[in-house]
Amino acid sequence: MTCPFRMHSKSSDELERHPLLLPFSDLQTNTTPLTGTHSLGKDYLLQSNSAIAHDSDTHDIVAGTIHFPQVDLSSLLKEEAIESEYYRELPIQYSNQEHQIMTQPSYLSDGSDFDPVIGIGIKQHSKIKAVDYAVLTRRGYKMGEVPNQDRSFLANFFIDTHRVTGGHPHVALMMGIFDGHGPRGHEVSHYLAIEFPKIFARNMRRKQNTIPLPKYDSLRNSTPHEHHFTNSIKSALNETFIEADANEPLKGTGGSTANVLFYPGVNSTVYIANVGDSTTLIVSYCKTKRESTIVYQNRKHKPHMPDERQRIENAGGIVRIPQSLLRGYGSINGSIQETSRVIIPDKDGNPFRSLALAMSRSIGDFEGKRIGLTAEPEIDVWDVNDWKRQLDTDQILDTVFFAITASDGLFDVLSPEKVAKYLGQALFDDRQSHESPLEACERLIREASRLWKKESIGMQYRDDISIVLSRINFVETS
């Protein structure tokens, strides 16, 4: 049987030459975010293939590519928070600095003085300018040498769908954000960024071996097969979260959110799996009107939510809810709001050494599992055809789709609508003067940084900020 996933046995001349990913054991002490583009080896194949089972020379197989942020913006930008700390020691100058912060114009406003540092030289390279994805991060400012605890990636798994689309190459898409917390949370998120795609691929192969998955071309007109395929992917995602949590190596000194989007490369459905408070958006973009519309947004897992709170309290846990939430105050764009927290005592039950966690589900946080914290993901399936039913033929032809996955360092201070607007224009606006997707991500990260500085002027705090952006190229099978 011909495998619907292409095993690339060439020496990857078609790709930039990058080393295969190192195993986690070689990287687990690293405190620097993963960067660059890497080829994925045979461990990342989504389906098994008997043709290579007896092939002793499989080291050159390229199953896809994975993109981490090109750079941590903190290495390119001067730290504004340090400037403010200096001026705090000088009352008159600090007052002037505070006034400057409060009146600094938005980087998103017309005529702003935004000058990208990531985009130097990009406009001279049309291939980079035309890229329809971006991954970027900036380390936060949390007093002292606290590392960036965000990890993010965009992975493309090669597939062969020649029976579906006449030989045109396609890829399955996976986007992930892992926002670590706790003293060693960056090690948990680092582990997840490396291991999650590999565990997922292994679970997909295992399902093919135990319950044969339908061929991709059978999705053309077979609703039962389509449901089976959907359930197999949902099951593989769920098992990946549970397995990643069980194998998380720290067991008690850190944790992480996990927010993952997966599009299998054919058909009309996208899968979003989440634990924690990171966010994925799916956005439609009208090319004629240059307008973005959010068509999907995942639910964050906050301790005060009725079902989450009940599970935690039933397990003997304690949820603290600030008065602002009890009074029903909503979020205010550009303003950092209070959040509910679940209290995780240390292993000896000492309340004075407890952790107040701002989410009700996570990977890691070993001590929290006994008081209702869980790594079981909430999995949503979004079907583009459901959205298209609202449109006429001309509107369908005029509409494209993209996805954004980002940490709360972005969405705590910027509205999803504003983020979708700027990234949609960067992806699809064909005017030559418009910025690239990577430059648009930098603009948003720097605007979020400005808002963090404005909101926390007394304490000088900024969360880590990470964005993953990609067009979704839907490949219809009917």
TrEMBL record:
PPM-type phosphatase domain ranges (all copies): 132-472
Q: Which InterPro entries match?
A: PP2C, PPM-type-like_dom_sf, PPM-type_phosphatase-like_dom
**Domain of life, source organism:** Eukaryota
What protein name does the entry list?
PPM-type phosphatase domain-containing protein
Source organism of this protein record: Discostella pseudostelligera
